[in-house]
UniProtKB/TrEMBL annotation, chains A, B:
Residues 28-88 form the HTH tetR-type domain. It comes from Arthrobacter ginsengisoli. This is AcrR family transcriptional regulator. Residues 1-22 are annotated as: Disordered. Pfam families: TetR_C_1, TetR_N. The keyword Repressor applies. Residues 51-70 bind DNA.
Amino acid sequence: MPASTSARADPHHDAKPRRRVGRPAAAVLDQAGITAAALQLIGKSGYDGFTMAALARTLNVAPSALYNHVSSKRDVLVLVQDHLASLVDVSAFEAEPWERAVRAWAWSYRDVFSQHTPLIPVIAVLPVTDAPKTLAMYEAVSAGFSRAGFPQGRIVSAIVALESFIFGSAYDVTAPADIFDSGSMAESTPNFTAAVQAQDLESYGKPADVAFNLGLEAMIARFGALRG
Amino acid sequence: MPASTSARADPHHDAKPRRRVGRPAAAVLDQAGITAAALQLIGKSGYDGFTMAALARTLNVAPSALYNHVSSKRDVLVLVQDHLASLVDVSAFEAEPWERAVRAWAWSYRDVFSQHTPLIPVIAVLPVTDAPKTLAMYEAVSAGFSRAGFPQGRIVSAIVALESFIFGSAYDVTAPADIFDSGSMAESTPNFTAAVQAQDLESYGKPADVAFNLGLEAMIARFGALRG
DNA sequence: ACCACTAAATGAATGTCATTCATTTAGGAT
DNA sequence: ATCCTAAATGAATGACATTCATTTAGTGGT
């Protein structure tokens, strides 16, 4: 058998980075493609499996090629986070009364980011300038608050308070079910242990949802009273 | 000059790991010491400078020695987080009415962890069994809720809601002041831009504090109404 | 006293990453 | 034609966390 001239040495998986050195005729990468691939990779492998090398592999590219389009891994995370912001449903602010709109937005926001909690530390300190779709979300929400007669000077504070609650609650969704099981220390924490048991008996739905509902309705009720 | 027999070769800094191989007469490390050193290191160098090697250096020990007492870096973070929980002020639950107690606890809790936001992802999914001091905090808080006539089945949900809000708000404290500066995109986001400006004019105190106060008072007011 | 066991150190790998750099190539502008 | 810049490759680099073999010191049992 003659050594094959065109076959790859390792026919294990297809789509290996078979591209010769130098600038290709048409660009392979751009930020949109990187974002989409990152999102898909995160969906398949989670944030643990999300490495620059793995991302490059799914794009059929050398890792270093990514750095022609983003300046760091954090940059990729910012792109992903901004894309996710566009998945948050703000449509209710144009069609429904304020209370219902806030409720729909908040649940949607929490649901989107509960699948992406590793992004929360990134979002929380990210200037809105770097995240246009996130900024668009804020615009839709503040327009809704404004239209509902919310006092101008408190709109941002109210949104920040809601958002803080949403981010914190997103973590809860991912927490293990038995996180409050006090185990062998139950005797030394009678009040807490009793409260945990009472909750298990009395509440319907997932605990994270019950808590989110409780806090959200509290904020909606009080904030609603601020409207002129 | 004879070659000195006891002087170290490199007199650059003192306290290098000059200890001969093998088990020392008295143990050098324990979890309490590791926790204290970690806390001090984090205070000095932040979470970026917090590496196992750096921690070992401050303890005058080889990095691998740490693994005789903790099983991972995450383990160290759990120890630190649990220590911080003991710094949260729950004393008001024994001396003050419910509303004031919740208020004092929540502000204290936020202030402690706003300096340690990288721990939040760790805490949020940590079983209480692994964090005895955190469990003690929950016990004090739920005892306070119980004593105040809060319905048993909702105590945990209420605490979780408050805690979620607290964690999210802890991030806000660390956010840059101009995080909401929409910059060149201001024209396309008139409502949000106006709201940001109105806030700057009208509100006193740090924005993060104003937002935290707003959300916290909303929860206290509504939750207070649940008491029997 | 002796011996086996376990605990607690050291120091030398290991392997995984993100990131950088030199090099190569393509296409557009002067 | 020539130059410049953009976009690839592939080969370092440098941090890290973590593991392993080895050494030494007490301890409990015989």
